[in-house]
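Because discrete structure vocabularies remain unfamiliar, we first show an illustrative case, written as a sequence plus integers encoding its fold.
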Amino acid sequence: MATYLMNNMRLLKTLTATLMIVLAPLAHAETKWLDKIVAIVDDDIILASELDTRIDSITANIERSGKEGPPPEQLRKEVLDLLILENIQLQLANRYGVRIEDEELNAAVARIAAGNNLTLAQFQQALTASGASYLAVREQIAKEMILQRVQMGNVSQRIQISDQEIQSFLKSEEGRQRTAPEYHFSHVLIPVDSDASSAQRQQAEARAKALSAKMRAGKNIDNANDAISISDLGWRKSTELPSLFIDVAAKMNDLDVSDPIQSASGFHIIQLLESRGVKQMVKQTRASHILLKPSAIRSEAQTVALAKELRQRILNGESFRDLAKEYSEDIGSAQEGGDLGWTTPGQLVPEFQKAMDETAPGEIHEPIASNYGWHVIKVVERRNQDVTKEMRKQIARNIIHERKYADELDIWLRKIRSEAFVDIKI
């Protein structure tokens, strides 16, 4: 019986909800309920203790925020609805086989601790001091991660984003603001009084040119020794830069120093310390491959032997393209002679990427294995590609996706709630 209960946690949970225990001296026995069921949700149940625990937690959060919460009965109903939705999603996760590995959970807990400027040990101590259980918090974090994974898996596939939507966003005022390049400048001002003479202005300009040359040469300057004002402008989008600097900034690379820029207040020198989104250059590789997969009729050893044989035949002068068409089991590239087109780092599986990176153009790497099988890889050529436009499109796509996600999530949650069997007992 004990083994049966251990292997059937859902049954154990149900039995616990209805079990009666005698808590009294032997001379006088008193029967008490341990817990009760407040809702049946498909193949699972929600216990009163779960509901009460969540209500207590939410009530504490409301009190800490200083806000006024809803009436007790309304709060109880809303929290029960929340638990029902969570339960439905957790059952879906169980059917999908969604799991959070210990290593992943440990990393998530560590990030939360770091976000509160605490070490993991300090985080545990803080929870204990507040009366919370570290194990319970850890379990709740795992549950939230599972819920997020189930939601993303089901909702993201419902979201469609057209090229027209992306282009419209990029042309909008918000789109220009959100995707504008960012610059981090230091700024030097050689002031000139509004009533300065021509000779004084020339003297200030000469001083500004000398400082600009000094900065280009990598020599240190400071406020005291050079009698100037140096300021850090921080990170600013191009749309937030003073109009005086916009045209100059667009032509600068990181660490460049500008020529003196004249204004009514004097002469300005700017140095571009860092930039983001100005011009994104990516090293791309064009490669071809032949994929061979072990099978019931060809063992691992035979597959490796064939891969080595094909590589040698290519080195002996046979056409890589022709052999790829004949032997490769990659449906997507076989008919193209194994051509994978231009790829960027991270686009291919790590084993393939590593082999490709260490192979010079025109050379053929020794056969390597991946989850897909054995690969014979030929690197055709490499280039540095400007992907700034693609990057801006991806930023726009992410913003649009985020907006649509909230609406689609609400629709999906309503759908699974309507399709579930729910019997509320209170």
